[in-house]
Amino acid sequence: MCGIVGYVGKKVAQDVLVGGLRRLEYRGYDSAGIATLDDNNDAHLARAVGKISSLSAVLEKEPQTGHLGIGHTRWATHGGVTETNAHPHHVGNVYLVHNGIIENYKELKAELQKTYTFASDTDTEVLAALIDSNYTKDSSLKDAVAKALKRVRGTYGIAVFSPKEPGTIVVARLGSPLIIGLGKDETLIASDASALLGYTREAIYLNDGELAVCTKDGAEVYSLELKHLNSKKETIEGDLAQIQKGGYDHFLLKEIMEQATTLHNTLYGRIDPKAGKMHLGGPNLTEKEMRDIHHVVIVGCGTAYYAGLLASYYMEQLVPDLTTEVVIASEYRYRSFHLPKDSVALIVSQSGETADTLACLREIKKRGVKTLGIVNVVGSTIAREVDGGTYVHAGPEISVASTKAFTAQVVAMLLFAGMLAEYHGGDPKLVAEFTRELAILPEEIEKTLNANRETMEKLAKKYAEYDHALYLGRDTAFPIALEGALKLKEISYIHSEGYASGELKHGPIALIDNRFFEVFTILDNWLFDKACGGLHEVRARGGKTIVLTNSKADIEADDIVRIESKIELLAPILLNTLQQLFAYYVAVDRGNDVDQPRNLAKSVTVE
Ligand code: G6P
């Protein structure tokens, strides 16, 4: 979703800002802009609809030479995708970029319209006017920002400068991340640490309700009451190589193919195959607390939700006296839910910033229930607000469609389940079996991807022109069907639905015609015959079927992709990597923007 960058220092700000915006492209956006202040204290503004390359074309004609500036990638919420609606917004003496939503912007606008004429339809321009109206002769930009923000309802991450105070950028956050990178004679600002990589490793992560005044010499942090606060300097993790394509055509393909390596990192130091045990340090729960857990609620959105769903099947298998519930964050946050005191909540999020997931975390905490994060992005808001938890260590996921994070999330939750099992009379043999499979999962993923990459590419070509797809599976293959359908629709724009194959006769079977194809994930387990039942029903009605399976048994389908693997319990994870490849190649075949699919954002920081 929207991204913010800022720079004050000795370099030409335009270059740093455009470079930073490119790093944030992956989040999804529809327009971009920068504003800088030159050495004569004249401000310059450039904005463009579309990709950063459109903005660069504008800047090529009129380069900006100043050493201070702010930049933004916008994902439209208020008002259409137009140059006038793009950020930065300029009102009076104020230049502003903003992530988030100002909920009371209409009433503020009605009030400010007496003094200001608004050019855009955005809530952000209203905030710029509100700051400007507080920016009087006797106040500083810091005072004006603080005063204005006290009147605001909603969420924001902002960066502001004014020609009246050269050398200063004021930033603030409430519900939308802002990181201040501290370099030598330069200070950088970003909504996402990846924009700071290569410049500095030292950073201040601003907390909600904080404001900071940034100059080339560093940053001073304040509350909105302008009380000076001590800020904590932290280290930014990761390196530049992790956010580059590494020879692949797209980040998505790179992220699918590197899953063996990233999973290795997820598992590092957390399994002991010889002893048949799993261990996670992060939850930080005492033996008694582990014993007392009888109810686990798993919260997430999109792919994170499906990862939770698959993990819940494994949890039930491993922990005999555990009740699990998996919920969609955007629904749960407004439900009058009750959680027993012996619950623990797993908050699953790749970005650690998803607004609905974060809102659930806060609602759950209000009810006095312990929260554990299953998060990828280090230092993200969810990671900071949970009581404990674990980083999944999948490394930066740049492509909007989530792939390697899904695998890592399922595995991290499985590790938690394996630990719980020990305290809840779980079968040690089953824990040991899962542990054995986990230990070889990275190499099995590598083998599966390499052995089937070409097959999936060919298959994708065959099915790329269809209009609709149904993904079907039962038991642990059901969440995989949901995730497979999501992946295909996200990047190929083919209408696709995931269903439990037992539900076929209750509706979806009516859809089958020659515009549809059906993907069945069939596992070699005790439900094999029942899983094949759905396949027969579809074939009997002339459906075009693809089967992904780890079974050696005879199966009739239009196309069958069989994997050979020593993995059984975790076969859904392996088969899912094939679905990822399939969706990728279909999207490539259809000529789509694979890494930044239309209308989607990587980190959904608004409701
Ligand atoms: C967006 C992304 C999805 C992701 C979902 C949840 O919709 O495009 O890929 O699964 O948000 O994101 P999170 O960062 O909370 O896992």
Mean pLDDT: 94
- What's the alpha carbon Rg, rounded to whole Å? 25 Å
Span of the ends, CA to CA: 11 Å
SS elements, strand count: 27
Bound ligand species: 6-O-phosphono-alpha-D-glucopyranose
| Name given to the CATH architecture of the largest domain | 4-Layer Sandwich
CATH uppermost class of the largest domain: Alpha Beta
Characteristic key phrases:
607 residues; alpha/beta; Rossmann fold; 3 domains; 8-stranded antiparallel beta sheet; globular; binds 6-O-phosphono-alpha-D-glucopyranose
Description:
It is a single chain. Helix 9 (302-318) packs parallel to helix 13, helix 14 (428-463) runs parallel beside helix 17 and helix 15 (477-492) packs parallel to helix 17 (571-589). The chain is of the alpha/beta class. The protein has three domains: 3-236, Glutamine Phosphoribosylpyrophosphate, subunit 1, domain 1; 247-426, Rossmann fold (3-Layer(aba) Sandwich); 437-592, Glucose-6-phosphate isomerase like protein, domain 1 (Rossmann fold, 3-Layer(aba) Sandwich), CATH 3.40.50. Strands 3-2-4-1-10-9-11-15 form an eight-stranded antiparallel β-sheet, with helices on one face. The protein has a seven-stranded antiparallel β-sheet with strand order 5-6-7-8-12-13-14. A five-stranded parallel β-sheet has the order 19-18-20-21-22, with helices on both faces. 6-O-phosphono-alpha-D-glucopyranose binds next to helix 9.
